[in-house]
């Protein structure tokens, strides 16, 4: 409780533009991963420093003899995502370290503890990225290097909340990675992918408890697909800042589904209800025949847990040019839709598997969270 009050007042002061200390100058809008430890290509001495912070090392198992080309996008997406995460946690650590308004903690022990944990997370994310990059390099496949990034977060509550959301999506996406590798006969890296999946799950439990949510979200976590993760990441990348064309990664990029209900989807109540959405279909050719119509033939399709995709028809479609707002039912009760649901706007309403949704998607993802909240017991409440 004390913590909540301190943060609320810090945020309020930041809003009032109280003069900030000299070291707390706002960061440039385009954030680059700080140089210094050699990431993403550390030399052996630099890697030893990263290992030390990460409490562990890369695998020393020999790489698989071959990897199916169809599996390259899996590692490219993992590297693209981990590069973003490295940037995000670097920025968060800088902000906390420098006491940027909104990122100040109520006591120096809390600050030290959080920085200690985040430094380890950052080093672990670096090793996740390096692992994917090494795999790609080994097979002479394109390996994404870091872009410049932008974050929509301006205080610690928003930052932890965003970390919880994108980590949750990663937990679904790594399921898809394991599935694709298995389908392609690339069994070699499956153990490592699932090892990092569990690791991200440990992080997720920590972020959730900081946010007064139960750390374990569902019995079987919500799945996701690679294309939706790649699409979601685009909002954090400064357009045009990647040192490679985005189509070097053979995954589609869909426009986002903006969730208008429940504080942008982050605080949706645990009940059946209609949710409102908005989508900009300006660059989506496949949407032509729906533009200006009533929404007939369009669906919101949800991933929730390990349930088969759940589709509901959209209603109340209202168009402004190619931007559409609409409503769709959120069938909470019948499907126990606690935790994360991943919404897409689709042209079909019947799917036999999550992977089938991509081919019928016009826009994705929209993230919806329904929380089973708890009281934090140590006063460390964001
Ligand atoms: C760090 O602070 C800057 C300036 O307020 C902000 O733009 C950025 O989003 C913050 N970083 C994170 C990860 O929240």
Offer a few descriptive terms.
signal, four-stranded antiparallel beta sheet, globular, disordered N terminus, alpha+beta, Immunoglobulin-like, 382 residues, Late sexual development protein, 38% helix, 2 domains, binds 2-acetamido-2-deoxy-beta-D-glucopyranose
Briefly characterize the structure.
With 382 residues, this protein is an alpha+beta fold.
Detailed description of the structure:
- It is a single chain.
- This protein is of the alpha+beta class and 382 residues long.
- It folds into 2 domains: 3-19 and 27-248, no CATH class; 258-370, Sandwich (Immunoglobulin-like).
- 38% of the residues lie in helices and 14% in strands.
- It is built from 9 helices and 8 strands.
- The strands form 2 sheets. Strands 1-2-6-5 form a 4-stranded antiparallel β-sheet.
- Helix 2 packs across helix 4, helix 3 (72-97) packs antiparallel against helix 4 and helix 3 (72-97) packs parallel to helix 7 (226-233).
- The longest helix has 31 residues, at 108-138.
- It binds 2-acetamido-2-deoxy-beta-D-glucopyranose (NAG).
- 2-acetamido-2-deoxy-beta-D-glucopyranose is lined by residues 26-27, 88, 91-92, 95, 100, 151, 153-154, 159.
- Residues 1-19 form the signal peptide.
- Keywords: Signal.
- This is Late sexual development protein.
Which strand order do you get reading across the main beta sheet? 1-2-6-5
> Any idea what the shape is?
globular
Mean pLDDT: 92
Given helix and strand content, the structural type is alpha+beta
Q: What radius of gyration results from the CA coordinates?
A: 21 Å
Helix content class: 25-40%
What kind of sheet is the major sheet?
4 strands, antiparallel
Low-confidence runs of at least 5 consecutive residues: 1-25
Gap from first CA to last CA: 8 Å
Number of helices: 9
- What oligomeric assembly is this protein in? single chain
DSSP strand count: 8
Number of domains: 2
Bound molecules: 2-acetamido-2-deoxy-beta-D-glucopyranose
Order of helices and strands: HHHHHHHEHEEEEEHEE
Protein name: Late sexual development protein
Signal peptide: 1-19
Keywords: Signal
